[in-house]
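re: that chain from earlier
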Amino acid sequence: MNGAEYFGKAAVGTRAEAEWIVCRSCKLLLYGKRFTRHAKVCPECGWHSSLTASERLAFLLDPGSTTTVQPGASVRDPLGFTDLKPYAGRLVAARQATGLDDAVLVAHGTVHDRPVVAAVMDFRFLGGSLGSAAGEAVATAAETALGCGSPLLLVTASGGARMQEGVISLMQMARTSNAMAAMDEAGLLTLTLITDPTFGGVSASFVTLADVLIAEPGARMGFAGPRVIEQTVRQRLPERFQTAEFLLEHGLVDTVLPRSEVPRMVANLLGVADAPDERWGADVRDPMVRDPARLAAPPVEETVRRARELGRPTTMDHIAGWLDDFVELRGDRTGEDCRALVGGLARLDGLPVMVIGHQKGHDLDALVRNNFGMPSPAGYRKAARLMRLAAKLHVPVITLIDTPGAHPGVDAERGGQAHAIAECLRVMGSLPVPIVAVVNGEGGSGGALALAVADRVLMCENAIYSVISPEGCAAILWRDAERRAEAAAALRLNARSMLELGVIDGVVPEPAGGAHNRPDRAGRLVHDAVVCALRDLRRLPGVQLVSARRARFRRFGSPAA
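^ sequence. v structure.
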């Protein structure tokens, strides 16, 4: 534990009565009252000063909605600890200096009229360290949320475990983690807002167990702080190590947001509990084609070309076109984020959904940045994480499939590509929520199927779906990649063939010449098809969904299929 890493460090710029403040980052002289009005963010460089727990609650919760929750009693000095001064004396001094009973303030309130229970840490109180009273406060916050069926918001600022309480402080890690597990079992959303600093036993317990992790710019989080790392293992730390931006790049948080944007983001996430009435989607006309005879049969090489057309709507285009309030959730939580696969919570005509899809791009730069839509193991681990979250929150899953296949490189193999794909297949087969998959471009191999174990599998008119690319098939079986047209024809990879084979449930028509000619219209057709599929599925209980989904895939390859 590194409870002393930031222990007792002054919170520069937190005194509301100061007339002038010096920005810790750019050294600009700031007028105190104006600085406070702007939530203590430097207008020049964006540096985020610390907030007290009371200031944080006032900033996040709607005015007049806050009700303080009093935690239960806690052991105060279990060891009778003394270092340079008695721990009991330190507690008295901290209470007098902050006006707080301990390092965590708990309250019930609303954010944009949506209810939430918040547990907010205050770094001024012994470095926000986690002792028995702080652990009790976090557990109380979770129990309060469970009691009223509300989401839980955690706001962190801590140097780690409180060393003066010894092993009793260590036990708070398990105590608070169990509280988070109870929230998971109840299907209630948990959010963490990471502020600077967040270290040690706090980061290694309840903080990182939340469903969504939001970090303020520049906030640092880790298990061992920089000083501990340098003194213990003598390692030179990378630039920006453990900062919010570093954590985002390495898949350890979902997003980094300026302080001013946090309330709106939190409100959008809290809205996941909202659900429309039974008439949802009743006015949408189903555009799907279910009779193969109604589908044209252009030359197969033309279908392949259209499926790969750079102008086709990507996953992010579909999200922007027909989903609202999208909150991207990033990272596999093991150290990576894959940009070839994107996902997050959104609203489909008011219905909360989890959307997950492959992401290519419309030009070479975007294709390279997104690895040509070929996910790494981190991408599939992220997808599985988001699917599990959808199941916890009881929201439907929509997947958008457009990939040549999973990335086949050395790093992917080293990272467990096969297992990551297999885990997606298993998770999707077991999700007790509706799943609609749309093959909207290339549906290549296991990399595509990893997002297609669904209750309804749809396919855009000019999309393709196959066990391997035509080029790969020709190279292996014909030993001549140039014979890709023959391979494509033999693979029967077009939408009409998939419908005849029973692999898909319907075909989404495209504008004349392909989706790239009128991407907005193509997106609207996909929207209508997805709404109509979910309209029926959302009425079914989870057990029935799982049973029918498994029966569906059990039939493939059987004589009666």
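Residues 166-186 form the longest helix (21 residues).
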